[in-house]
């Protein structure tokens, strides 16, 4: 993990997530036990009209555990200073995520698909139930990019693949990319933007796979 000294602009207070509540936290001087940021929504993020899907759905969908490259297999809060060194991946000294990006998105996507009611059932990757389709999501990017000392955006990108659960033949595949601008150049603003990007991302993946039920 690369640790850097934060510029003065990082002195603004940061908001940390505890479930859906917001707590105030420090910046680069935050204590080691600071509550980690969490993009996982505990409330319904599916529009009411989407929840009125047909109750005659007969297809069971299984969401395989979301995968990600090795550099994302961490709860470290990673970011780029694109205006200084676009290739260097940096990490906050104290700020961190409540889980890995794959774990957080897995939870959000499973919840979203289950609430949409487009499927007879949506099973987690650990479930032993019988399914007709398997949805695999490979996360390729989950990072906050600061494009200037006082500007930046959250980025989530990945590829979804829908498979036949019986012979594992590919039914469809689609790439997704969501960005949300930061309101301020801070870790808290990055986490808030990442939460919003996560909502857009899982919504887009869910809407895409729902058309195959």
Automatic annotation (TrEMBL):
<dbReference type="InterPro" id="IPR005586">
    <property type="entry name" value="ABC_trans_aux"/>
</dbReference>
<protein>
    <recommendedName>
        <fullName>ABC-type transport auxiliary lipoprotein component domain-containing protein</fullName>
    </recommendedName>
</protein>
<feature type="domain" description="ABC-type transport auxiliary lipoprotein component">
    <location>
        <begin position="42"/>
        <end position="201"/>
    </location>
</feature>
<dbReference type="Pfam" id="PF03886">
    <property type="entry name" value="ABC_trans_aux"/>
</dbReference>
